[in-house]
Every structure is written in C-alpha cells, then in structure tokens.
Amino acid sequence: MAFMRYIDLYFKLVAAGIRAQLQYRFAFFMRIVGMLTSYAGTAITMWVMLYQFQELGTWNFYEMLFLFAIAVLSWGFCIILFFHFRSLDTYILNGTFDRFLVRPINPFFHFMAMKFDVASFGQFIFSIFIFIWVSAELQIHWTIANVLFLFAAVIGGVLIQGGLLVIISAFAFWTTKSEQFYWVVMYPARNLTNYPLVIYPKMVQWFMAFVVPFGFVNYFPASVILGKETPYFSENIGYFSPLVGIVFFIIAYYIWMLGLSRYKSTGS
Amino acid sequence: MFNYRLYWTFAKKSFLRSAVYRFDVWSRLGSNVIFLLMWGSIWTVLYAGREEAGGVSFQAMLTYIVVSQFLSGVNGAGTPLWEIQEKVRTGDISLELMRPFDVPLRYLFADFGSVFFYMITALMPLYIILFFFMDLSIPNDPLIWLAFLFAAFIGFLIRYCIEMAFGLLTFFLVETGGVEDIFYFAMSLLSGSVIPLWFFPGWLASFASYLPFQGIYYIPNAIFIGEIAGNQIFTSIGIQLFWVVVTYIFLRLVWKKASQKVVVQGG
Amino acid sequence: MAIIEVEHLMKEFKIAKRETGFLGAMKGLVKREFHTKHAVKDISFTVDKGEMVGYIGPNGAGKSTTIKMLTGILVPSGGTVKVNGIVPYENRQANAKNIGVVFGQRTQLWWDLPTIESFELLKEIYQVSHSRYKENMDTFTEILGLDEFINTPVRQLSLGQRMRADIAASLLHDPPILFLDEPTIGLDVVAKERMRTFIKEINKERDITVILTTHDMEDIEQLCQRMVLIDHGQKVYDGEIAVVKNRFGKIRTLVVDLEQHSTPLTLEKAEVFKEETGRYWIRFNREDISASGVITQITQTHNIKDLTVEEPEIESIISRIYQEGFDGVEQPIPVKSGS
C-alpha cells in the first residue's frame, strides 16, 4: 500500500521535475549536444589510438566501441535517475536539504524524485547508433537471450553507477562535500571502465570487480556477449551484473541512511 | 605601469588560500594518479612487449605519458573553466572591472600561486618518486631541461589564454554546453596529452600542427624525451611563442568585448 | 494544555579549528583539530495549544538549532522534546504531519514551476483530501490574494508574494503547529503588515500554535504575548512581552551631529552615552520624553547638522538585559529543574 503510494507520488514529482527542466529548452538542447560531443570525442580518441596499433590487448576498435556504448547507455539512465545526488552538498550547505526532512515521506525517496534529468537523449542516441554500427561490423548475432541479457546488464550497470553516486552523495553528510568526491571517485572510475579492464594491473582489476564493481557495468557483460577472455575471472562472471547491481545499491542505500542519521545529529 | 607588487600579492594570497582547501589537493592528486595509471596501462598494452613502435622506444613513450600527466596536474591546478564561468554568471568578474587592476592578469597570477602550492606539496614529491622508481628516460643535457621548462611554461600560458577566453565566452552565451565539450576534447586529444602527434593519422597530425593546442603538452613532452631535438627545439618553441601571442591577443579581444558588454549593459 | 514540551534540551557540535599562517596551512593538510560548540546548552519551556510565542535571540544564539530539533531535522544531544505528544526525532514523519514550517530565507516551493503546482504536489505529499485542499486553497486565496500570481513560476515572484505562497503551502495540511523562521525578513512595510495580519488570523481562527523567530521588534510586539529570549544557548527570559517592552523597548537612541560648540551638552531625562568628533549618541525613554523634546533641548544651546533616531534592536535589548538584568522589574523565570 505504502509502496503503491510512493510509485504514484514518484511519477507526480518526476513529472513536475520534467516540466521544470523544460522551462529551459535551449539549455536542455545544448546539454544534449554537449554530451554527444564529448562521447564522440572519446570514441575518436580510441580510433586515433588504434590507428597505428590496431588492437588494445586483444580488443579491436569495434569491440572497444561496443564496450564503451554499454557504459554510455547505462550511464544515460543513471543520469536520469541519480545524477543530482552529486550536488547534495550544495543542498546541505545552503540549507535547502532541510525541506526534505520536514515532510512526511522518506527523504531518500523525496530527494531522488526531486529531479529527473531527461537530457540523456545524447547518451541514448550515441549508444544505439554505436550498437547498430558495431553489430554489423562484428557480426554480433542478436538472439532474444542476448538482448535480454544486455538489458539486465544495463539495469545492473545503472544500479552500480547509481549506487556509487548515492554513496558519494552520502559523503556530504560527513564531510559537507560530494561534488568534489564525484570528480575524484566517479569521474576517474568511469574513465577507467571506458577501456577493457584486462589492460590494468591485476590489483586494479580486482578492485574494479569486488570493491567498486564497475567491471560489472560493461567489461564483464561485454566479454560475455563478445566471447572475450577475462583472465583472473570466471568467463561467466558477466551474468552476475544484475545481482551485483542490486546488492551494491542496497548497500549504498543503507550508507545514505546512515549518513542521514549522522546529519541529524550534527546538522551539517 | 605594471604593478609587480600588486600581482605578487595575488599570487601569494592564492598560495595561502589553496593551503586551506586540503581536500582539493589530495583529490586532485588522487585523480591525477588514476589517469596516470590508466594511460600508463594503455600504452604498456599498446606496445605489447615491443621495444619500440613508430621509431619511439617504449621507455620514451612511458616517459612521455608520465611527463604529460605531470603537466596536466600543473595545468589543472589553476582556476578551472567552470569556476571562471561561475564567476561570470554570478557577476564576480563584472565587479572586478571596477578595481584598479587587469582582471586576466590578476587571475593568471592567482593561478601561479595555487599552482606553485600544488606543485611543491603534491606533484613534485609524487613525480620525483615516480622518476626514481620507474624506468624512465631522463635528459642528461641541462640545456634540454632548460628548453623543457621553458616550453612547459609557455604551454601553461597558452592553455591559460585559451581557457580564460573560453570562460569569458559565458558573457555572450547563455548556455555553453557544446562549446566547453569541444574545448575539453581539443584539450585532451589535439594537444597530444595522451597520444603523441606522431601516432596520429597523417591528416590529423597536420591538422593538429596548425592549432595552438600542441604547444600545451606535445611540444614540452616531446622535447623532454628527445623526439624534438637539435634545431627543431628552436622552431618548436618559436611556434609556441607565436601561439602564445595569438591566444593572448584573442583573450584580450574577448576580454575587451566582454568588458564593453558589462559597461554598457551592466553585466 | 501543553502542546510543545522541551526539557533540558542540549545540542553540541564539533567544529574544526582553522589554523592560520603558512605553517598552520601546511599542518592543516594533514591534521585538523576540533573544539566543541554548545549551540543549545540547557533550555526548557512549554507552549500551550493556541499560544503564539516569539523565540528570540541574536544570531548564533541557538534559535534555529532549537527549531530544527522541534521539527525533527536534528537529534538533540541531551534532554527531551515532545511536539503534540510525539518525539520529533524518533518519529519524524508522523511529526511532519503535525507541523508546518516556513523558513523566511529559503522557499519550500518548486522554484521553476508555476506556484499552483507546488500546492498540488504538497497535497500529494501530505495526503490532503481533495475537499480539504479546495477549502484551504479558497480561504488562503481570499486572505492572501494568491490568485494574483498562482500561475507564475516561483522564481519570478516578488519576495512578498513568495512568502505568502510559502506560508499558505505550510498550512495546506492543517497542521496544529506552525514554525515561522524569520517570516518577515526582507519584506517591505506593507507586505510585513499583510503577513502579520494573516498570522494573527490563522492563530485566532484555527487555534494554531505558532512559534516565531524574528529580528523584527514590530513582529513580536504585534503578534506575541509571550517571548522566550535565548542567548549563548541558554534561556535568558521567558514571559510576557509587555514586561520587556516596558523596561527596554521604550529606550530610543538619538544620534546628532552638532556644529562647533563651546558649551557642553547637558540634557534632562536623556543621557549622552557616546561622543565622537561632533557626533553624540543620546539615550532616552520614550515614556519620559519625546524625541522632539530632546531635540528642543539641544537646539537651545547647539546647532544640529544632522540627526537620526534609532530603535532598539533585539541584539541591543538582549545585551542590555545581560548587563542590567531585570532588577526591580522582574526576575527571569528560572530554568525549571526536575519536572
């Protein structure tokens, strides 16, 4: 019952958020252009890098694009749902966070539903374009099972990256900083996963698999679909992506709630 | 008249100010190390055990990346693009127009202060250790060192002029989304910060050679590892000097337009 | 019947020390020291249903910390709080339904949306029934003139309009208790008056208990019968406003700039308490003598170049209470010990 109420409320709050965002149409449009530009930039960098060398380890240009596109797609959904978590510090510092605490609903839910950043069209256009182009080049055979798996892996990726955003925002409860943590933790982590994990030292690979499980966002699932080897890891590890996502997000939620109770005892 | 003491004060103030934000120092250093790890790994795997590729030894290439990351640490310690944009939007910069100093120079000197702080507290210790423990190629000739330091400094000025000019564009554009992404892309790829120009496809390499960005990373890095040597050093630094003049004039033009706009429309 | 009970309320914060100088800055990179700040030391009071209480003190006295503990935003370090029978920090959501909160400087409305949409969202959040929502909206529209700007995005409202919208929003769910934090800050005289009338009216007609923090003496004089005065996290006074007003609120300060003078300035029923190169600060009691009375006295011996009359600020009243105490008037109500 409470659950249904929250679903209903979520849609109402989110619809309000979208209407608010659409008040700034030009900014909205420019953000999409900006995102497309920067993803195209990374893709071009990959192409230039492989112009002389052909392969990065065992990965060729198209395989790397495929890997990259999975990350971009799930990041797109992540932006829609969780991107505003990184600026929790601003809400705390200027006191606007308190308004989430004087209302009779779950503050995590309220904060999450406050914004719904629909400017992720850039990510969707980019990743779908890459999927189509690369599928032809690599002759990926799309079966229903494959598509379902990709879908599940993207959900896993959204939960993992969203979970990290939630944890980063929770830092604001202890340190009054979150935006900066985003740039220290999230930004480098996302950049690392733009390239196949296999190129990094073993310790980094373990870290990206079991501590900050970004390996499950794209590298492990892409390895399953493309049939690439994953040294140090079982070749089927990619199938755990959705599960890892769920577990990681639940942990993130509890860290956030822990931070909130800390906030309530310190005030800032 | 150029008032040395005033600008020196800006540098000193910003040096002391950066000391207060200890988190900034550690966080920048942290992500600098992560990107070093990333590009170091990428180049190690690209070389795939080969001693050399395209006439450049693996050791030289690795040195190129390490030097490049050091320089991007230096360049990244100044006022970032978004902060300039923020200052434009909030009107802070418009207010400074009323003060008796030159605003672009004031920010340059403030950057000197914060960069120096970051260099001595974080970058130098880390990179000295890296050079000590990693098998990198270090120039023996003190003149090469001198040329490198000079080229790196000019590169810093070029980057400053371009970044500040881009930041000031905020005066004219409501939303700079696409523009700043193009800036970041040019900054990372066309400057040769992660891939040296000699590995570029021919047409892209010549395209990049007509742009100012190569002066920021590519030229100092290549001087350091000896890929630019002999008389080439002079021509390369000549190119840099040309670009620093051009970008400086560009910055002044944008600044003049921006200040006119402030005076006429009140920001 | 007490609707708010606060006993021995305490709140401590840890604050990082900032080192100065170059070496201090270097040290700060590695280690930072903390000291404890007692924002609220030991405060007790009760508020009865339907009361309107001014909760007053200088900046940093612990006002908003107390309000945050009453609204469930902060957990106290010691003591107990009960709001309408609920412990706010233990049962925040239930408490939230019982209270309305307005922060004068920060809106609770959706910044980019037409004002009406904020009301509609709050209706959902607080689960206000449709009929009740409509009734309330009709009433508020009538008294506060919401229809002037109901379709305007909140960011385009004037401060006065925004405050009206904010206070209406805080009352949509018929809370028995209303917390107003600086509700008239920054408003012009007309808007302030309108705000006060509305607050008075809902207090009277709906029997809503109001806790009000403000820096504006007028607010308190017009709205509250009782005030709780705090400073440095402690209660300094709790009682009728009339007492404070009689004792301190009637003191005015006249600042005059005088031309070159040979005779010293001597005044009856007024005293010079500060003098600085031709400028005099003169204190008088409005009941003993009028401002023009003082001015007449001065003009007999001196030429006035410029003058202003200053009303007492809360800060100065409090500092005077600290200096002079309530001797001969009334002792501050001692903090209750035990129950």
Automatic annotation (TrEMBL), chain A:
The chain crosses the membrane at residues 28-53, 65-85, 118-136, 148-174, 195-217, 237-256. Pfam families: ABC2_membrane_6. Keywords: Membrane, Transmembrane, Transmembrane helix. It comes from the Bacteria. This is ABC-2 family transporter protein. It comes from Cytobacillus stercorigallinarum.
UniProtKB/TrEMBL annotation, chain B:
It comes from the Bacteria. This is ABC-2 family transporter protein. Keywords: Membrane, Transmembrane, Transmembrane helix. The chain crosses the membrane at residues 29-49, 61-82, 115-136, 143-162, 182-200, 232-251. InterPro entries: ABC-2_transporter-like.
TrEMBL record, chain C:
This is ATP-binding cassette domain-containing protein. One of its GO terms (molecular function) is ATP binding. InterPro entries: AAA+_ATPase, ABC_transporter-like_ATP-bd, ABC_transporter-like_CS, ABC_transporter_ATP-binding, P-loop_NTPase. The keyword Nucleotide-binding applies. Keywords: ATP-binding, Nucleotide-binding, Transport. It holds the Pfam family ABC_tran. The keyword ATP-binding applies. It comes from Cytobacillus stercorigallinarum. Residues 24-257 form the ABC transporter domain.
